[in-house]
Amino acid sequence: MFEHYGSLIITYGVATICWFLIYYKTRFGKYWTTTDAHTEPYSKPYWELLFAFLAVLAIIAIGQLYINNLLIPNASNNNLVDALNQLLIFSPTFILLFIRKQSVNTIWLKPTFLLQRLSIGVVISILAMILYHLVRKDASPLHEFLLSVYHPSNISHLTQVFLEDCTIALLFYRLTYWIGDKWSIVIVAILFALAHIPSLMANGASIQELQNLLFDTMIGTIVFTALTKSKDIAWFIPLHFVMDMAQYHGGNQLHSLL
Asked: Which segments within the chain are labelled E, that is strand?
């Protein structure tokens, strides 16, 4: 577990630096400079944040229905059916946008240059997978690792990651609108780190391993700083997806270069 955790920290950090370099040092940065921070003004942003939290509670409730097999029946574990169930679980995110008459700009998914930003994200994700493979000794060759992650059978995982990121952006957009970027980054990064404590304790984490939460907070700060700067999740979705899938294809040890 902790070998995978350390590999993720390194890979996310380098991948995020890659995005910053693209943004500041290449002509592709224009795909984000035209993305406005807050395109739809809120007179009472704290109410919009509350509505977003209610949507998350609804997602959790529908998720319980899924766990208890009360959504679309899927006894054969069909990936397409599971993807449809994921759409149902996260539907409150888009229902809220519809009810509040808000566009996808408010979940950092602006249509302008969307394909270009997504393509750059795919390139970053492939580089991240190669780095992950170098850092962590893998059970399979690199080409098998790449093919297994991008296999069509992972459509339900991709759908879940996409919808997760939309929901995170739903909350983060409204939080930054209310209290500003800097405090939002700090709060979310700390919560991101604290969320790992239960699983770490359950797996018998040592004091030394719990200290990694500080490093986790730093990485979370870097990632959320990039998302706040880009005001976009399109580039991040491919990276998030491959890093989630990496847990199923990792090895038993970190490579000796660490």
From this structure: 136-137, 253-254
Integer Cα distance of 1 and 200 in angstroms: 9
Query: Residue 72 — φ and ψ, nearest 5°?
Result: -65, 125
Q: 212 to each of 98, 203, 246, how far by Cα in Å?
A: 41, 14, 20
Flag whether pLDDT at 252 surpasses 50.
no
What pTM, to 2 d.p., does this model score?
Answer: 0.86
DSSP state of 221: H
Distances (CA, A) of 7 to 81, 225, 254: 32, 20, 7
- At residue 225, the pLDDT reads 87
pLDDT in tens, 32-81: 976 555 556 677 888 999 999 999 999 999 999 998 999 999 989 999 99
Q: Where does residue 242 rank: exposed (0-12), middle (13-18), buried (19+ CB within 10 A)? A: buried
pLDDT of residue 254: 42
DSSP 8-state assignment for residue 75: T
What are the pLDDT digits (tens) for 91-101? 999 999 999 99
Residue of 228, 182, 186, 173 whose CA lies nearest to 52 = 173
| Cα–Cα dist 113/181, whole Å | 23
Can you read off the two tokens belonging to residue 49? Answer: 């944040």
Look at residues 174, 35, 32 and name the one whose alpha carbon lies nearest to residue 102.
Answer: 174
Mean pLDDT of the residues in the chain:
84
Give the H or E element holding residue 8: helix 2-25
Residue 137 scores a pLDDT above 70: no
Q: Residues for the chain: how many in total?
A: 258
Burial class (CB in 10 A: 0-12, 13-18, 19+), 2: middle
Report pLDDT digits (tens) over 144-160: 888 888 899 999 999 99
